[in-house]
Structure formats: C-alpha cells, structure tokens
TrEMBL record:
<dbReference type="InterPro" id="IPR050738">
    <property type="entry name" value="Sulfatase"/>
</dbReference>
<dbReference type="Pfam" id="PF00884">
    <property type="entry name" value="Sulfatase"/>
</dbReference>
<feature type="domain" description="Sulfatase N-terminal">
    <location>
        <begin position="31"/>
        <end position="293"/>
    </location>
</feature>
<comment type="similarity">
    <text>Belongs to the sulfatase family.</text>
</comment>
<dbReference type="GO" id="GO:0004065">
    <property type="term" value="F:arylsulfatase activity"/>
</dbReference>
<protein>
    <recommendedName>
        <fullName>Sulfatase N-terminal domain-containing protein</fullName>
    </recommendedName>
</protein>
<dbReference type="InterPro" id="IPR000917">
    <property type="entry name" value="Sulfatase_N"/>
</dbReference>
<dbReference type="InterPro" id="IPR017850">
    <property type="entry name" value="Alkaline_phosphatase_core_sf"/>
</dbReference>
<feature type="region of interest" description="Disordered">
    <location>
        <begin position="1"/>
        <end position="23"/>
    </location>
</feature>
Amino acid sequence: MCLFGACQSSSPSSRAGSTPLQKPSQTYATQHVILVVIDGVRYSDSWGDSTFSNIPNMARYLAPQGVFNPQFYNQGVTLTNPGHVALTTGYHQKIKNNGDELPRFPSVFHYYRQHTGAPATDAWVVTSKDKLEVLARTYSSDSAAAFAPSVNSGIKGLGTGYRDDTTTIRVAKQVLSRHQPKLMLINLREPDSEAHAGNWNGYLKAIRQSDRLVADLWKWLQKQPQYQNNTTLLITNDHGRHTGKNFESHGDNCEGCRHISLLALGPDLKRGKTVTQPRSQADVAATIAELLGFPIPKRDGEPMTELFQEHVHLGE
Ligand SMILES: [Zn+2]
Ligand SMILES: [Zn+2]
C-alpha cells in the first residue's frame, strides 16, 4: 500500500528484493578468483597490435594457458570508477569518478560474504587508486550491504592519493599469503596516469610493467600450494583511451575508449582458445558468482560460460 506517494521512488533495497537471482548451475574446481584491472589501456596499444610488443607476457605466456575475448567492451561510462563498478556489481551505474559517490548496489564481494558467512578477510579490494576504496562500499540498504570486503587503497585509503603499482602487487601478495582470500580485485593505475601526463613512452612502459606484474602474479600463484590449480585469474581494463592521436584522455563512446580486453585463466576455463562472443564488464560479477558457487541478483550481465571448458557443461 502506498501512502502519500512514499512508495513511488524505488530504493535499491526494494529493487534488490524484487530482482531475480542468478543461481550457480553446478560446482567448479575454482576456489579463488582474482580480478586484475589494468587502468586505461587501449586495445590498439595492447592486444590489437599484432606484434604484442607491449604485452609479450600476456600474449605469449599467459594466453596459451587461458582464454581470450577480443570482443570485450566497456558499455557504460568510460571512466575509472564507473568501469570498476560495472565489473564488481554487474550494473552500469553513472557513478561519479572522484570517489565522492558510492556504488548503488552491493558488489560480488558483498554477496559472496553474505552467502558463505565468510569473514571480511576472505574478500579484498586492493587498488593503486585511493578513490577505488568505494568499491568496498555501497549506499544500498540491501541486507548484503552489511558484508563489506576488506580494502587497501591508495597511499592510506580514500583521499590520500595514488600509489605505485609495484606496491599494490606487493600488498596483494602479502594479503594472499596471510589471509588466503577467496576473492580479490587488484587495480593497477600506471598506464592511465602516464597517459594523462601526456607521456606516450611512459604509457607504453607502464603497459609493459603491468604485463610483467600479472605474469609474475600468475607464476607466483602456481607456486603456492593453496592457490595452485584452483585459482581463476581474470585480467581486464576499466576503459580504453580515445581513438587516434589523442591518447591522453578518455571518457566518451568512441571505439578506443570502449574497446578493452579480457584474458582469463583457471582450472575450469579453456586453454589456448579465443572466444568472440561480444561481452562487457557487466558480465564479470555474474561469472565470478557462477565459478565460486553463490547466487547474485541479476543486473546487466550474465555468466560468460563460453569461457568454460566443454566438459564443465556436461552436468547441465
Ligand atoms: Zn584516466
Ligand atoms: Zn574516446
């Protein structure tokens, strides 16, 4: 019953209550998921360059062990916070880009903890950009909002500035060793920062550093008994950059800003394959929930089952 029009505005909680759930269809070998977001890398400067000169490790070492989608896009606002929020919530929110606004909906981290009862140390947001601390929060009044993940962002959290990507990877490895989380997001920001500074060579160098850092992370994971053969690694971007010579900036709907990439490795995923079904960031949260076996409200995305090995589908 609606009195005085009070029910007319649909709050996140009332929406969440009526949103259908996406439930996992089966169980998987994946026990941990790590999502690495390399900030602001244009497709044409990475996978779209046929020599792979800036991503030799991803193209020649990681891709043969995983599955690549060259048709992966930012279908929302092509800025850092909106891109990351689409990845973590499966919803294209026009969220502010400066850290002043929280996500409208709980994230895949919140739903993971709510469903499993896992402690906050089982889900982590580790980011070079301090403004991404908002990924661990939400203004939703959904019951899942109480299950925030742990967060380690920027120099010392929101408002304290950006830090180096090598520091972020070091922190991420410390957390992985100490807490053995099931779910982690890592943001690497240096390609975006170098490009905004107008430093073309610095931008390419930062892409090459990111390429090295993610390959080293995968090698390191495969040497840890607790992560070996049971960890899925997803490597993507928040947005690209303007097409053509104007590489410094981004934020509109041009091909360069929207076209990003997805490389995925893990025990349940295809190896040495390319899949070409057009996908977007909104499909990532649903895919993580499917692999880790918990329900999540259906928003703008769905599980990317085309990434999965064929035998995984036999039980369906
Ligand atoms: Zn940027
Ligand atoms: Zn653009």
